Amino acid sequence: MFKKILFKIYELILFFDKSYGVKKYSLDEASKIQNNILLDLINKSRNTRFGLEHDFKLIKSYKDFKKKVPTRDYEQFKNYIDLIKKGEKDILWPGKPIYFAKTSGTTSGIKYIPVSKESIKNQVKSAGYLLFDYLKDKNSLESINGKAMFISGSPSLVEENGIKIGRLSGIVNHHEPFYLKGMLLPSKETNKIKNWEEKIEKIVEETLGEDLRVIGGIPPWIQMYFDFLILKTGKKIKDIFPNLKLICHGGVNFEPYKSNLFNSIGKEIDTLETFPASEGFFAYQNELKKNDLILQIDSGIFYEFIDLENLKSNYPKRICIDDIEKNKNYSMILTTNSGLWSYEIGDTIKFTSLNPLKIRVTGRIKQYISAFGEHVIVEEVDKSLKLACQRFKEVKVIEYTVGPYISDEKGKSCHEWLIEFSSLPNDIKSFEKCLDENLQHLNIYYRDLISDKVLSRLKVKIVKRKSFINFMKSIGKLGGQNKVPRLSNDRKIIDKIISLNKI
What 8-state DSSP symbol labels residue 443? Predict the structure, then answer.
């Protein structure tokens, strides 16, 4: 009965309220909304410790804000975070956050990102917009007339000084929206299993026989789930879940995984990219035929940007929505309704459209190779690999990472690509040459280094199956929201994988 009522609500929204979903603001509209958000956040936080220390009462404009509030990374916020963890109120945001989202990747180890009741509502709302925009695009409710599964971290939370702590994907499990009631898999008990491989096996058991129609998660872990299913049943995914319609993915570029995933399924299905993080849900793909993402302008986040070209200057120029340009690589800076102020999240984006504001995620600030002055970024290696796979159609890549090989002899240094294939190139040397030419075309500094014989052409090292899974397991980051770094400016990751590969 409940499901029938729910579907009637869906139908009313889908077919009669076409305005429901993300708003496609013009640049002028977006500018006004963003300015109002900034002033609202400042006004609400003027009596917090951070607000008092940075003279929030004197801030009347974005210009004032830039003068009073410098950009900070997590390490520079850590003293404030530590005070909140001790139970102090009104530090970065009024009161205390309801959660700390645990995430990793800093020099100090685990990060604790504050999540307020306002920001978690925005996370859930944005996910809802994605679903309804998809249903409107399809003009059908077929995709949700069954089960949905999100491969996520554990929903288990611990509490310290009145604040619950856990992984964001697990936190979101506690905020199941009404429109997914009774649809979500796996069970909370299964989601709590800590051992990732054991968890996947249990998920397989629970989902076999279900009418699964939507699956979400990070691509390598979706692939791992598919591999377990195929191993257990001997069938393609389309024969196990004939009504599977949609994959929602995020966290890494989908392209390197696309061929393998569709091969496992046995056909192509719809895919949608998302751009969520512990700090907020920033953007999602709102049109199936266009692979850029619409920026969430009115979700309690104020955005700033720094052009990557001047990021390393002593005083890099910060801009807001008003001054952005298309096709420039920007570092994204956030001010949020959880109390992060001009926070350097570390992601890089490009604007693909200004009306409405749409972006493409291009990589991470700290993921690059510039051992020889080339500053190769994630977007460039992802695209190089994509183009090579389009030419060598037999190739299927499971996972890869890139780092420098440094030699004392001129012209012997190079970029080393560790690639795990499910289907090898017929001619590895030709594939290698194609990859290198693609990268030269995309990065002129790399091309010049090759031309000047400072570097030799890149080298591909083929690693055995499960090398990357074993690597992630060895560092305690198997599964959930954890991702293999694409690029490193040193050999720590590459050498670790190679050492494991020899075992």
Answer: -
Other Cβ atoms within 10 Å of 466 Cβ, number: 16
Instruction: Compute, in degrees rounded to 10, the torsion defined by CA atoms 27, 28, 29, 35.
Output: 100
* pLDDT at residue number 6: 55
How many whole angstroms separate alpha carbon 70 and alpha carbon 66? Answer: 6
CATH architecture of 121-152+181-284: 3-Layer(aba) Sandwich (3.40)
Helix ranges restricted to H, 340-427: 378-391
Please state, for a pLDDT cut of 70, what percent of the chain lies above it: 94
Measure Cα distances from 11 to 21, 135, 144, 338 in Å: 14, 10, 12, 34
Highest mean pLDDT among 1-5, 256-260, 406-410, 458-462: 458-462
Could you give phi then psi for residue 480, rounded to 5 degrees?
60, -130
Q: Which amino acid is present at 193?
A: I
**Res 194: pLDDT:** 84
Q: What are the residue ranges spanned by the domains of the chain?
A: 27-80+292-362, 121-152+181-284, 368-501
> Considering the chain, what is the average pLDDT of its residues?
89
* Residue that the structure tokens 């190779």 belong to: 369
Report the DSSP beta bridge partners of residue 421. 397
Among the ranges given (12-16, 43-47, 499-503), the one the predictor scored with the smallest mean pLDDT: 12-16
283 has a pLDDT exceeding 80: yes
8 Å CB contact between 282 and 251 = no
Say if residue 213 is exposed, middle or buried (CB neighbours under 10 Å; 0-12, 13-18, 19+). buried
Encode pLDDT of 285-332 as tens digits.
999 999 999 999 999 999 999 998 887 777 789 999 999 999 999 999
Is residue 211's pLDDT more than 70? yes
Which residues have a Cβ under 8 Å from the Cβ of 69 and sit 6 or more positions away?
Answer: 54, 341, 342
Query: Over 70: is that where the pLDDT of 7 sits?
Result: no
- Helix residue ranges, H only, 250-367: 255-265
Contact 352, 358 (CB under 8 A): yes
Residue 175 CA, chain-centre distance (Å), reads 20
Spell out a b/e string for 149-180, using b for 16 or more CB atoms within 10 Å of the CB, else e.
bbbbbbbebeeeeebbbbbbbbbbbeeeeeeb
The C-alpha angle with vertex 51 and arms to 45 and 53, in degrees rounded to 5, equals: 170
Give the contacts of 7 (CB within 8 A, at least 6 positions apart). Answer: 141, 145
DSSP string covering 327-343: T--EEEEEEETTS--SE
The distance of Cα 186 from the centroid of its chain, to the nearest Å, equals 22
- Which residues are within 8 A (CB) of 129 and not within 5 positions of it... i.e. 6 or more apart? 21, 22, 284, 286
Query: pLDDT band at residue 107, thresholds of 50, 70 and 90?
Result: very low
| Number of CB atoms found within 10 A of residue 184's CB | 17
